[in-house]
Design a protein that fits this description.
The protein is globular and about 75 Å long. By secondary structure, the chain is mainly alpha-helical. The protein has a two-stranded parallel ribbon with strand order 1-2.
């Protein structure tokens, strides 16, 4: 009986405790219901430990001195890439003369550079997602500068194209600097800052042309290449001031490193980090190329690969076409001087030595200014219409100007047309860069960019054979493929499923 009474008392005690817990829970719920939504949210925030993501930290820090430093140093990576590409346009007449090259051999030089870029584009993207963006960009600077210097000592045409291919491999690494830069910039500033990278591309193009005007006539093309690596050497030193991407660090599980990076940036900007603890899950599947063709990204990736192909095909087509038209006097000009009235056509005679004159250099120099002259228009399109409509508009405009270059006009008229063509193809390339960096998550952003740049180099590999080989036979036949590709791409952009204007960068797929 005593045992039974003791058991009964224990049962009653447990029931009483449970009843008290239920009453207490009901009371809390009642009080919560009586509170306003703001008070309820505050009570919930007090009950839970505060935490924030890298996206929250980047937006909280805002824009400041660090971003100016980042913009100048990382934007200067475009100087290196632009110089390597424009160098081909300036040096082509010189190597044609020295080694008595035919058109296809001159075109092969550009193709070999883009081949190196294409092969290493995917590899650099994979390494950047696995081991960090900073290491890839820094290594790319050193690699490109080293092999560019070796190019100036090339004893033969074979060595020249091999070493230029190696330069292309290094430039593939420096292109990951765009990803590193994008991951530090707050969403509302990306549409303003990223298009301004065209300034640095223009500076690189102009630097090479000025070297061509001043160094080539007196010291030759080899010294021009040696002088051209000076910006790369300076940038290697300045790059030490740029930290690794905090977004990559958290995705790799290095929360401590990300906190150190964000704290330093906040201090430099005179800002504060959000309250609480940086907390974000580690992403184990980084650099997985299968994500790019998964159902979530398949259509985006396929359309972007073609968009990158066309962006590169049209851009380098405009650069190399202008160089070829000037070099061989293939322009239809109503005010041509006696020197430019002589048409150099391969069917009539193979002219190995057709160097640029000062007027040709000036035309190339003015056309380079077109890459920055319409930056305000680029920013306007990005902020008002968004990324997708901007790409479509610019691609249609590119097609129109490619066809207009064929009309008979004065040298001034040709310079204006070339100026506008370089403006729109450059703006389109810029928008494609921005959209790609925004649409892919951090886990595959670099390899996504790597695949895209590799497809773009396919366009760069084909462009020389149309702009430098086919051009000698028919100007209209050479310009038509560029215009057609732009029109088809403008139609394809409409099927991109995501508009990234004002959207936060994704961390995981």
């Amino acid at each position: 009986m005593a045992l039974k009474r003791s058991s009964s008392m224990k049962t009653q005690l447990v029931d009483a405790i449970q009843l008290q817990e239920v009453e207490l829970e009901e009371e809390i719920n009642t009080n919560s219901c009586n509170n306003s939504p703001a008070e309820a949210a505050e009570a919930k925030a007090q009950a839970e430990p505060k935490c924030y993501t890298v996206e929250d930290a980047v937006e909280s820090i805002g824009f400041g001195r660090f971003h100016i430093l980042l913009f100048v140093i990382m934007g200067s990576a475009n100087i290196v890439e632009a110089m390597e590409i424009m160098l081909l346009a300036v040096v082509s007449p010189e190597i044609r003369c020295e080694w008595r090259l035919e058109d296809w051999q001159v075109a092969l030089v550009s193709t070999m550079v883009f081949l190196g870029f294409m092969v290493f584009g995917v590899l650099c993207g994979y390494v950047a997602d696995k081991y960090g963006r900073w290491k890839v960009v820094f290594g790319g600077f050193i690699w490109a500068a080293y092999f560019s210097l070796l190019t100036s000592f090339s004893p033969s045409y074979g060595w020249f194209i091999f070493l230029r291919c190696m330069v292309g491999c290094g430039v593939a690494g420096t292109s990951q600097g765009f990803v590193l830069k994008t991951e530090f910039i707050p969403a509302k500033y990306r549409a303003y800052l990223l298009p301004l990278a065209s300034i640095f591309w223009m500076l690189g193009s102009m630097f090479i042309i000025i070297l061509g005007m001043t160094v080539v006539p007196t010291m030759g093309w080899r010294w021009m290449i040696r002088f051209s690596i000076i910006p790369s050497i300076i940038l290697i030193g300045l790059f030490m001031f740029i930290p690794e991407s905090a977004r990559f660090q958290v995705s790799a599980g290095n929360i401590k490193g990300a906190m150190s990076t964000l704290t330093w940036i906040a201090k430099m900007n005179g800002a504060t980090l959000p309250e609480g603890e940086l907390r974000e899950p580690e992403v184990t599947e980084r650099g997985n190329a299968a994500t790019l063709i998964s159902p979530a990204f398949r259509r985006t990736s396929l359309l972007l690969w073609y968009s990158w192909f066309v962006a590169s095909f049209s851009y380098y087509g405009s650069v190399l076409s202008s160089s070829e038209l000037l070099e061989k006097n293939l322009l239809c000009m109503t005010d041509a001087d006696p020197e430019h009235q002589i048409k150099h056509n391969q069917e009539e005679a193979l002219c190995y030595c057709i160097p640029f004159n000062m007027a040709d250099y000036q035309t190339l120099l003015i056309s380079c200014l077109g890459e920055v002259a319409l930056i305000p228009l680029n920013i306007f399109l990005l902020n008002i219409f968004g990324r997708k409509p901007s790409m479509a508009i610019l691609q249609v405009m590119s097609a129109v100007f490619f066809m207009l270059v064929n009309i008979c006009t004065t040298r001034f008229g040709f310079t204006v047309l070339l100026f506008l063509l370089r403006s729109v193809v450059s703006m389109n390339f810029n928008v494609v860069y921005i959209y790609t960096a925004e649409v892919y998550p951090t886990a595959v952003r670099s390899i996504g960019m790597g695949f895209c740049t590799s497809f773009s180099r396919v366009g760069g590999m084909i462009a020389p054979f149309i702009a430098q080989v086919l051009m000698s036979r028919s100007v209209i036949l050479a310009l038509s493929p560029f215009a057609t590709a732009c029109v088809i791409c403008a139609l394809g952009v409409a099927f991109l499923p995501i508009e990234t204007r004002g959207r936060a960068l994704l961390q995981d797929a």
